[in-house]
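For concreteness, we quote verbatim a single protein encoded this way:
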Amino acid sequence: MEKLCGILFQGISGKILSGIMGVSLVWTAISFFIPLNIYVEIPTVLLGLLYFFKEKLYQEFYNFSKKDFFLITCSSVIILFTGAFYPYILDHFGYYVPTIKWLTEYGLVKGISNLDLTLGQMSIWHIFQAGFSNFSDPFLRINSILLLIYSIYSIERKNWIHLCFLPVLLLFSQSPSPDLPVIIFSLIILNEIILGNKNTSLLFAFSVFIFAIKPTMIWLPILVFFCNIFIYKSNFKRLLFGSAILFLFFIKNIWTFGYPIFPVSIGDFGFSWKPNPEVLKTSSQYAILKTYDMQYSYEEIQKFSPWDHIKNWFLLKGIKSKINILFIVCLCIFSVFAWVKKKKLITLICISLLIKSIFVLAFSAQYRFFIDVFFVIFFVLLHEYLNKRKSIAVFAVLSLLLISLLSFPGFIQQYIPSFQLGNFMVGFKKEQLYQPSVYKYHQFDTFKVGNLKFNVSKNYPYNFETPLPAISASFIFDDAKAGIFPQPINKNDIAKGFIWKTMTSEEKKQAAATINIIEKIHK
């Protein structure tokens, strides 16, 4: 990557980040044609090992002092220990693992969102994870590896504030959540911009790459674009690489979802495999319900006045109202800070975050969509004040706290019951000292509607262990309600993709019988 595109920044962490982007983009391109199985993984790993020794990259580690190497070792032990806990993020079972299974067995499948709308996302981070999931990382702990890289970056660049963020990010180390890479990558790119890195071509390309992992990170490419115009005054040729990545992102989404950006039905090119409008409408209604933490019905929300929308969002029961209030307070504080400082870069950061926040608040104001804003604001406000000694102290205290909470989740369950993820934490198991903890659930039922034979997890809402093709029960209900059902484009080869089709009377009977069985088992 450095030979082809230049150096993002010096050091081993810079090489790793360039490699991550390169491998992810190459695998995204080839996953249109072949699955990301062991035949893709082996050549990639061998090529990486070849360059590691041929270019003598191991010599980079000799640049660390004994104290720095000791700090890297301590942080690595903490990361590996916390990364071995059982996954508890619900998307791990309903989105991450099923997506990775499809990618390793079939690659990118046209119209996969018709089978299960969630799968239409097919994040580039899951493409990266899928390629390494055959033998290098079968436990899906790529996020733990990324945290190791992040700790190396902080120590290598002598930018110690990143160590303060590391313990909080340990909460994402057990699953291949795309939230972790976008937070880490955005903080690194932001740090490089503040340090005066003028390689705008790679900075913009990497910011678009982050956006392609999770589109809620739209603020970062906007920021780099603004910097390119108002600070660096570079020509638009430097945006070509990033524009190419953006084009690949749009093509991937159109292939799997039918529209350029998931889950928004903007940019309708009339592709036959786009989702049914009723299913998209149901999905958008669900997003509105999630904005208010499912505490109001859709009908109640529709009757809200503009003031009710704001008031009820701030007054939700539980911890989420506190997060919402803190979000707005932080934005206000940062806006005042930018106005007082009157520095062009800080002003551009503030404007970029405000643009992102407006988009999030307009579409679905869930805290998981703006959590990165907290990290950015704290970084800009405090990076000049937290030196090595203070940062290591914060890192040690917060790491001890996070390890205690993960090991004894009963504390969260008792004192913060509104933090729902705490209810799915299991706690420490001695087996995780030698092998990461994973769940196994092989119970499923097989059904057939029309030409589609599919599997549904038995008495469980997600299909993380269910053989493909698998559909979540909730989407079966949504499809039946809309009078449609997914069908393979080629009944003899599901790798050719899926479309939706209005059900015949016979297919309606098959769908009704399927729903009846699922409901009986659930009861």
